[in-house]
Each structure stands twice: as C-alpha cells, then as structure tokens.
Design goal:
single chain; about 70 residues; 4-stranded antiparallel beta sheet; 4 strands; about 25% strand
C-alpha cells in the first residue's frame, strides 16, 4: 500500500443537508477518493474516475440494495 499526496477538496451530496452520515468524494486528476464523513480520519478509498463513474451508474440503476 502506497502513499498518495494530494490536497483533496471533499464534496458531499446536497441531499445530505448538514448531516454527518454520508459519503464524501473528492477528485484529483484521474483519481477519485471516497471517505466516510462521520469518520474522515479512518481512511479513504481511491479509484480511477472510470471506476467511480461505473459505480455511480450501477447505484442509480438499482444494481445494489441500498
């Protein structure tokens, strides 16, 4: 496992209002990072932009029981 040094600008859905129980995402170059807003120090998951877009499409299509 390596170290990635980026200054991430975290965003969350406008539907989450001021709640802290959501997923935050950030983009840097060709990478997207995802973290838990209620525990941001617990780590991040970094994937390529195409992988992130595929996941979003699948979630919107109802592929996962969320």
């Amino acid at each position: 496992m390596g170290t990635i040094s980026f200054r991430w600008t975290w965003r969350k859905s406008s539907r989450s209002a001021q709640g802290a129980n959501c997923v935050e995402a950030a983009r840097a170059g060709t990478l997207c990072a995802v973290r838990d807003s209620k525990s941001p120090e617990s780590g991040i998951l970094v994937v390529g932009i195409p992988v992130w877009h595929d996941l979003l499409r699948q979630v919107k299509a109802g592929v996962y029981d969320l």
